[in-house]
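Appendix B. One record, verbatim.
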Amino acid sequence: MPSDIPLSSPDITEAEIKAVTNVMRSGRLSIGPRQVRFEEMIAERCDRFHGVAVSSGTAGLHLVLAALGIGPGDEVITTSFSFVASANCILYVGATPVFVDIDPVNLNMDPDKLEAAITPKTKAIIAVETFGNPANMDRIAAAAQRHELPLIEDACEALGGVYKGKPVGSFGRAAVFAFYPNKQITTGEGGMIVTDDDRLADLCRSMRNQGRAIGSQTSSEGWLAHERLGYNYRMSELAAAVGIAQMERLDEMLSRRREIACQYIERLMDYADLILPTVDSDTEMSWFVFVVRLTDQYTSKERDRIITGLRRHDVGCSNYFPPIHLQPFYRERFGFKQGDLPITEAIASRTLALPFFNRLDPTQIELVTLTLQVMLQREQLLRPSTGE
């Protein structure tokens, strides 16, 4: 067993390797049958009519906003407690992100605060299923419906989850998944849009392919005709082939991730300095990462020292997620400041993402948790004595 324990690691088997080899031998490397099959598999899993494969989750979010006609002067509501792409995609179309604070339990957008953020300029809501947890999605969808706003599920971290009997990806006008190597399934790079909206799906298919008309690849004349502004956001046949092989093992991989999460919870439940992930009874969690939080007695500097200490002892660790609104670019452009989103900021300053991947074994989990315990004890000893 290697001495270092990475933060994440893709689950690649001979099936994926064989699938890639078969594509290479076929001579069809792009816009082929494997992309179509992968789209069908994801759409079916989400109970959707359409799947549109793209080059990344970020590309998928961008295309959906563009297809909805959102642009300069418009506002799009989202969360700051996410990977930066959840907001960057709004800037790509020239719109303005409006951040809503989060629910302190499930870490998703707080539905009660969503209503207050809606203005006449609001044109869409991007709701992130943080760390694979779809809690609140029904209430967010209901608010979007009341205000006649399209809901876009940023489900990039949540493939395979279920909430109140509905699969992740089925709540909004569209949903977007991502398949980066640390996700539940991977295609290396890649993403997927799912929707029941025929027109939206066709627009996204056209725009991912340089604005060509749907079906234009069957005509040499049509291939060089471009109906609208488009992008090179296609998914290769190689990536789609890997995605098919991964989807065939999805339930097995989700089950394994649940087992690992349960092992972590069992090992850490008596650590008084930690707040563990909470999953309510209505949720079938699709575990993307395993993130714990330090209690309020810890400062962000202490958290950062714990991360450094874990890494120094060959245990991968990170701070998922630094708030988007406090990233330098967002501060400079929009004037966001500390205190704008108090719950997001308080939670983000104390998060610890621990190693989490399908092949993490019990010995590695024990090493992670024991090393974390030592780092917590070290911080307690470093605190100045009160003299009491």
